[in-house]
From TrEMBL:
The lineage of its organism: Bacteria, Pseudomonadati, Verrucomicrobiota, Opitutia, Puniceicoccales. It comes from Puniceicoccus vermicola. This is FAD-dependent oxidoreductase. Pfam families: Amino_oxidase, NAD_binding_8. SUPFAM superfamilies: FAD/NAD(P)-binding domain (SSF51905). InterPro entries: Amino_oxidase, FAD/NAD-bd_sf. Gene3D superfamilies: 3.90.660.10, FAD/NAD(P)-binding domain. Residues 101-275 form the Amine oxidase domain. One of its GO terms (molecular function) is oxidoreductase activity.
């Protein structure tokens, strides 16, 4: 397909959306990204709080493929990322696998990708419509985005909602397959401490008991040098149970669960909800593309739950369209 001069709308400025947009822009397409949030990166999210910086979504990036490895080398050379650790007690393999994070937080990576892209943030789409003329996407504010090609990289249930009433008719197998993809939720606790956490090397722990699955020290990680701060992630069951419970009730429970692993006192905290944390099932290929409607989908439910897989899902879709 010739992409020169084609108008492409990419929904979602997570790593997958930014990668597909980069690939298509390189091919001469006119790419617009719309993102409902205020920042870039989706779950590659960093929050500033009381002088601290905390990664409260994805905690690090790994690399297993040569293709993604070239991006890691580029980001290392530009000072965007740094190595956090190579070995951890939970590793099942004796081989070392470097884990990387942004120099000032995980959001550094999507920010670097977005620098050369046209992104409209804080845009909430309410629906899409397709005709032989192309695509139209409607926002809450009344703005209409027109494009020849529509790429959806938001969590699949959100993408499916945008397609309802759009006028397209996917095969029943494809539609049922997309509608069947769901995700586990997670509650992320952002905790400020009055001193060093005492979490053992490498400054993080994977947990298998209680309501927590992860605790990570953002100061040991190198992104919060001035204020000691840790991030905890809940189990899916805990997140479902306390999803709509006020923070005044669920935050103390996360703090109590974290306290046995800490040598410092928790002085304050906050909770962030991730409804679409980890896919429960995956699409049969790295991306979805329907030629008859010029419609594509990509993301972690296609390539895999890791950051690398989500990134390569977007890149693969862009490469497919490039031909």
């Amino acid at each position: 397909m010739s992409l020169e001069g084609k108008n492409v709308l990419v929904v979602g400025a997570g790593i997958s959306g930014l990668m597909v947009a980069t690939r298509l822009q390189q091919s001469g397409a006119k790419v617009k990204i719309v993102e409902k949030g205020r920042g870039f990166g989706g779950r590659m999210a960093t929050r500033r709080m009381e002088g601290a910086r905390l990664d409260h979504g994805a905690q690090f990036v790994t690399v297993r493929s040569e293709e993604f490895g070239s991006w890691i080398k580029k980001w290392k050379a530009s000072g965007t990322i740094q190595e956090w650790f190579r070995r951890a007690p939970w590793d099942s393999s004796p081989e070392e696998h470097p884990r990387y994070c942004g120099v000032s937080g995980m959001t550094d990576i999507p920010k670097a990708l977005a620098a050369d892209l046209d992104v409209d943030r804080s845009v909430r789409l309410t629906g899409t419509e397709w005709s032989t003329e192309g695509w139209r996407a409607h926002s809450e504010s009344g703005e209409i985005y027109e494009s020849d090609i529509l790429i959806l990289t938001a969590p699949v249930p959100q993408s499916v909602d945008l397609l309802r009433g759009s006028g397209i008719s996917l095969s029943q197998e494809d539609w049922d397959g997309l509608c069947g993809i769901d995700y586990d939720p997670c509650l992320s606790g952002l905790l400020i401490l009055d001193g060093p956490s005492g979490i053992p090397e490498p400054g993080a722990m994977k947990l298998q008991e209680g309501c927590l699955v992860w605790i990570g020290d953002n100061s040991r990680k190198g992104i919060s040098p001035d204020v000691s701060a840790v991030t905890v992630h809940s189990t899916p069951d805990f997140a479902r149970r306390y999803w709509d419970v006020p923070n005044e009730e669920r935050l103390p429970l996360l703090q109590q669960a974290a306290e046995p692993y800490l040598s410092a006192k928790i002085v304050s905290g906050a909770v962030h909800r991730w409804r679409f944390n980890v896919p429960l099932s995956f699409w049969k290929s790295d991306f979805f593309w329907d030629e008859s409607f010029s419609l594509g989908l990509a993301g972690d439910a296609f390539g895999g739950a890791r950051v690398e897989a989500a990134a390569l899902s977007g890149w693969a879709l862009g490469s497919h369209l490039r031909g």
